[in-house]
Design a protein that fits this description.
InterPro entries: Battenin_disease_Cln3, Battenin_disease_Cln3_subgr, MFS_trans_sf. Helices cover 68% and strands 0% of the residues. The chain is mainly alpha-helical.
């Protein structure tokens, strides 16, 4: 019976034992790469506020621009708003964090193929380690902000590079990557908070976290099992092009016909894509990028524009505690859904976008008219929000990988990564006037 072109036939047909071992190593490798790529960013942002609190800087309010942690002062006599507003919207934090990543994702896909993957990974590792060191030893606000920028550059370049890298492996590694990135938010915040709670200073905790860039090096160079012709230290322009599942089956055939297919496959797509071809690929990606961007726009409009305003005075939890639980449950939802690709695949991405927009509109009215009875209902909605966002992310890139022509797949995976960042940046801009309006009531 002739094999069908399904997900299972996309596996590299190695001998059973060696094949299973390689698949497990690659899945674990991409899981760790996803974790490390976002972990450093999460931990560094959480730590920046603690470091800045110890700095005797005249500009005390500047510390709020380099941390995702919002300090709410319940009962602030100077705050006449019924929403117990923070003076500066957390949207300011969001824009400071996302803009470097957005710039990289907009322009890097057109030129990044000239830089071999090995050098890209080393650059990301150096940037992540530098961000830890800058924030740890910062003596001024600008140093901590520079640390945020370095972490953002590392995360942005790492994401588009590792998504492109998946085309050289079994498509199942996308599940590992997605799960790892989802786990970074939960693990990063918990580990940092745990070490601080154990009595370590933020500076010592950050220096301990330097193990994360080291783990990225180990994961990439020692855990992954790439194809023999993978362009590790050379440009992929004309050296190697990902092949189809049918090609893989035939390349492993020792017959004369198999050798002929190998020769044909290696030469049929040699050379980099032309600029018009890249524009054509981007046009075809819009059906994926638009729903992804819309999901993230609604998602981060909630997180940065509405979440801090969803405060319940009659709760046993303080405003700060409510906000922390919102963020934690959101990260849990993201982790669960980004780990779900093996169980369920959702092709109708527009449905996820619509459901997330409904979430945002519902919570917008909830903030304005305050009809929700307690924080527990919001907890459930925020968890659901995270589930939608994580599902949109992993399914978008899975179906891009599956439906894009082989010659264009590597560029497509990198180019499509701009969707979430663009949605996040627009959400930050939209959240400013919303925050100002509600806090003026």
């Amino acid at each position: 019976m002739e094999p069908t072109d399904s997900d299972n036939t996309d596996r590299l047909q190695l001998p059973d034992a060696a094949g299973r071992c390689a698949e497990r190593r690659n899945w674990a490798g991409f899981w760790l790469l996803g974790l490390c790529n976002n972990f450093a960013y999460v931990v560094m942002l959480s730590a920046a506020h603690d470091i800045l609190k110890k700095q005797e800087s005249e500009n005390a309010t500047a510390s709020s621009s380099v941390t995702l942690t919002v300090d709410f002062q319940a009962g602030n006599s100077s705050n006449s708003s019924r929403y117990d507003c923070n003076p500066v919207s957390t949207a300011a934090v969001l824009l400071a964090d996302i803009l470097p990543t957005l710039v990289i994702k907009l322009f890097a896909p057109f030129v990044i193929h000239k830089l071999p993957y090995g050098f890209r990974v080393l650059f990301c590792v150096i940037m992540a380690a530098t961000s830890f060191l800058l924030v740890s030893f910062s003596s001024a606000v600008w140093m901590s902000i520079l640390g945020v920028i370095f972490a953002s550059v590392s995360a942005g370049l790492g994401e588009l590079s590792f998504l492109s890298l998946t085309v050289y492996f079994n498509r199942d590694v996308l599940e590992g990557w997605g799960s790892g990135t989802g786990g970074a938010g939960v693990a990063g915040a918990l580990l940092y908070s745990g070490l601080i709670q154990a009595g370590l200073s933020p500076q010592i905790t950050l220096l301990i976290m330097l193990v994360v860039p080291v783990a990225m090096v180990v994961s990439y160079f020692f855990l992954l099992v790439p194809p023999p012709s993978f362009p590790q230290w050379r440009s992929s322009d004309a050296e190697y092009t990902p092949v189809t599942s049918e090609d893989r089956r035939q390349l492993l055939d020792d017959s004369e016909e198999g050798e002929q297919v190998k020769s044909t496959t290696e030469n049929r797509t040699a050379g980099s894509l032309t600029f018009p071809e890249k524009l054509l690929v981007i046009k075809g990606l819009l059906k994926f990028v638009f729903p992804l961007g819309l999901v993230y726009f609604a998602e981060y409009f909630i997180n940065q524009g509405l979440m801090e305003l969803l405060f319940f005075h009659n709760s046993v939890l303080s405003h700060a505690a409510q906000y922390r639980w919102y963020q934690t449950l959101y990260q849990v939802g993201v982790f669960l859904s980004r780990s779900s690709l093996r169980c369920v695949k959702i092709r109708k991405l527009w449905a996820l976008s619509l459901l997330q927009v409904v979430n945002a509109v519902f919570l917008l009215f909830a903030v304005r008219y305050q009809f929700l009875p307690n924080a527990w209902l919001v907890f459930a909605i925020i968890l659901y929000e995270g589930l939608l966002g994580g599902a949109a992310y992993v399914n978008t890139f899975f179906f891009i990988s599956k439906e894009t022509e082989d010659r264009y797949r590597e560029f497509a995976m990198a180019a499509a990564s701009v969707g979430d960042s663009l949605g996040i940046a627009l959400a930050g801009l939209a959240a400013f006037p919303v925050h100002t309006y509600f806090c003026s009531l």
